[in-house]
Amino acid sequence: MLVTPLGPIKILVNEQEIDYQAIRCSLNKSCRDVDGRFLIQYPYRSEFGIQKIRCCLPNINGQGDIESGERFESISFYKNLTKLTIGIEASFGMEEEDGYDYSGRYLNNGIEYETNVTTDHRIFQFGISWIQPCTEENDHQTWYGADMTL
To answer: Could you tell me the superkingdom of the organism this chain comes from (predicted)?
Structure first.
């Protein structure tokens, strides 16, 4: 289990917690000052059917800041001088236009993928990144750190 400055990260599939491995990722020039950058993968197969695959911080119960981009959805949480961002490859509300066979949504403590009957085999990825102390100058770095396509 990945433990962050804002608490443990949990992965739930249809409300059931699952075990996972968090992979430490290297930093790049866009997120050179982040303190943690991790990837969590969930291998989905179409025979699993409709699933909700959630990445969340159970210790957080509040409104996060939505920070979406092109084909990238993320939500950030602030506590004291720490900022943590969870990101996924998706386009909420524009799935068909962008060619996705799944959707998702923001949660009050995380983010989730939602598969449907047409979702093909794939590996769903969650990027997690945090920075301490978070300042006006480095605030954007967790967004880049949570984007695993960079």
So the answer is: Bacteria
Residue pair 52/13 in contact (Cβ under 8 Å)? The answer is yes
Return the H-helix or E-strand segment holding 141.
helix 141-146
Distance CA 46, CA 48 (A): 5
Q: What number of other Cβ atoms are within 10 A of residue 107's Cβ?
A: 16
Q: Are 146 and 127 in contact (CB under 8 A)?
A: yes
Domains of the chain: total:
1
Residue type for position 39: L
Give 21-80 pLDDT, tens digit per residue: 999 999 999 999 999 999 999 999 999 999 999 999 999 987 899 998 889 999 999 999
Tokens 């210790």 map to which residue? 59
Of the candidates 27, 57, 55, 56, the one whose C-alpha atom is nearest the C-alpha of residue 131 is: 27
